[in-house]
Specification:
The chain is mainly α. The chain has a domain of 74 residues. It is 50% helix and 11% strand. The protein has five helices and three strands. A three-stranded mixed beta sheet has the order 1-2-3, with helices on one face. Helix 1 links the parallel strand 1 and strand 2. The longest helix is centred in the middle third of the chain and has 13 residues.
């Protein structure tokens, strides 16, 4: 999808229940081949509202400074190159070809 709009990402941020699992977050890093950051705190919706309020009242100079001041990363998971390679093989050989096998069954 990103290539369709000529954009790219260089990191991922995870929040919510699944982000509490080291295994799940490591799998995300390995699948996407990018660093994945877990954030401090459990209510990111409240944090987002706080960022907007701080911006509205010009407590910080801009959104970037607000985010730098309020959003705290607790841990970063780096990709395991061997796992990343394996996930890409599975994607290339299984996932990308699955429809030719399932379309006949699921019609």
């Amino acid at each position: 999808m990103l290539s369709e709009i000529d954009e790219s990402i260089n990191e991922i941020v995870v929040v919510g229940g699944g982000s509490k699992s080291d295994l799940m977050v490591q799998m995300i890093a390995d699948l996407f081949g990018l660093p994945v950051h877990r954030l401090e705190g459990s209510s990111q919706a409240c944090l987002g509202a706080t960022i907007c309020v701080c911006h509205y009242f010009t407590i910080y100079q801009d959104f970037y400074e607000t985010i730098q001041s309020l959003v705290k990363k607790t841990q970063t998971f780096m990709l395991n190159q061997q796992n990343h390679k394996r996930y890409n093989q599975i994607n290339d050989h299984v996932v990308k070809n699955i429809r030719s096998h399932t379309d006949v069954i699921l019609k």
